[in-house]
Amino acid sequence: MKFPGQRKIKHYFPVNADNRFDRESVAFGHVNTYVTGIDQNMVDITAQVDDAVLEEFGLLKGVSQLLADDAAAERLYTYLLKHELIEEEFAGGTIGNTLHNYSVLADDSSIQFGVMSENIIIGTSAYRYLCNTSSKVDLTHLQPVSGAIGRAFALITPDGERTFGISPGMMNELSARYIPSDVVAGGSALLLCAYTLANPDLPIYDATVKAAQVAKENHVPVVMTMGSRQMVAARREEFTAFLDEYVNVAAMNEEEAEALTGLGDPLMASEAILDLVDMVLLTAGPAGLYLSGYSDRDLLRQSNNPIRSGSIGDFNRYEFSRPMLRAQCEDAVKVFAQIDPYMGGPERISNTNGAGDGALAAVVHDIAANDFHRKVLPTSGKHVNQYLTYSSFAQVCKYANRVSYQVLAQSSPRLSRGLPEREDSLEEAYWDR
Description:
Blueprint: H1 9-12, E1 35-38, E2 42-48, H2 51-56, E3 64-66, H3 70-82, E4 86-91, H4 94-106, E5 110-113, E6 115-117, H5 125-131, E7 137-138, E8 143-145, E9 150-156, E10 162-167, H6 181-185, E11 190-193, H7 203-217, E12 222-225, H8 229-234, H9 236-246, E13 249-253, H10 254-261, H11 266-273, E14 279-283, E15 289-296, E16 332-339, H12 355-376, H13 393-408, H14 426-431
Parallel strand pairs: 1-5, 1-11, 2-9, 3-10, 5-7, 6-8, 11-12, 12-13, 13-14
Antiparallel strand pairs: 2-4, 9-10, 14-15, 15-16
Helix pairs in contact: 4-12, 10-11, 12-13
Keywords: Kinase, Transferase
Enzyme class: transferase
Family: Belongs to the carbohydrate kinase PfkB family.
C-alpha cells in the first residue's frame, strides 16, 4: 500500500461487481491529501572526540546537558568542523523525522511548521537540514529567524561513552501567526510532539495549542509523541490533560508510558492511556510494538493468528478489526495487537534514533490512506462505517514494524527510499470486497 500518490487504480483499489468506482472518481490524482506537523527544527551532529574536548567546552561526560548559550554551541561546532571530527550530521526532530518518512513511504506531500535560519550558508546546520529532508515535505510555511536552528551534539569518546550537548538556538521561537488555520484544517492528520509543550512561556507552546484547537474543531486526527521519560514525569498532569482534550493517537515507548501512567506493563499502560485517547502506539524495544484502540462491538473481526494472553487475557483476539474513534462507536470495545521485531531485528544496530518515528510514520500513512481512499471512493464498502485507518490493527502493526526495522538497519533516522511493496493478507482482502 503506497497510496496517497499517483498509482494504478486497478492494482491499488481492487473491486468486484458489487463495488464499482464512481465515474467521477477514476481520475483520482486531483484529490489533494497531506499531513501537517510542528517541530523544534534541529540537526543531530555525531562526532568522535577525546576527553580533552569535553573538558575544554565544560561538558560533563556521559550525560545530556544544555550548552551554556548559542555562542558556546557555535564555538563547539566550529571546532568540530575545523578538526574534521564530525562523523554524521542529519536533520533531526521527532516530527521532522516522521513527516519525512511519511512522505517517502506515501510518495505524498506533508507540510512542516517550525523555524529556519533566514540566511543559510552551504555546509551549516540549516543547510544540512534542508538537504536531509524529502522534497515532498513542504517547508514554505517555516518561520524565518535571524539565528541558528537547534543543534544536538553527540560526542563519542574513545571508550564509547556518549556525551550530549543540546543547543536550542531559535527552534522554540515559532509564533502562532505562522500556523495557517486553513492548512491545518485541510490535512489528513496533525502531528505534534510533547517537547513543544514543555514550557508554556515559549512561543512554540502557543503555536502548538493553536494548531491542536484548529484540528479538533475541524475533526482532523491529532497525533502526538511523548518526548522523553524525564519530561513526561515532570509534566505528567499537563500532558494528561492535553491528551484528554485534543489527542486522538498517542505514540511513545514503554518508559514514557510508565512515566505517564505509573504502569510498567505495556498492555496495562496502553489500556490506561486509552481512557484519554483513541489509539496508542507503544514501542517496547526487543518486545516489538503494541497497537491498541477502539472498534465497535458489532464490527469486531476475530484474528486468525494464535490468540495470546498477558496481563490482559486473549488480548489480540480482535486484532483483525479496524480502529475507530471512540466517539464514533455505538458500543466501544478496546482492541489490542502486538508484534515481535521484524525478523528478530537487524543483525547490527548502529543507531536506535528514529525507530519509533519510523513506526509512527507508517501509522500516519495508513490514516492518510484511509482519508484519501474515502475522498476518492466514498461509496466503497471500506467506508460504510467511520474508521480511523485503512487497515486493521494487525496489518498496521506489520507495516509499522517493517518501517521500524528499516530505520534500525541504517545509521540515519530518515529513510532514503520507500519499502518494497507489501503483500495483501487474506484478512486485508476481506476489507477490499
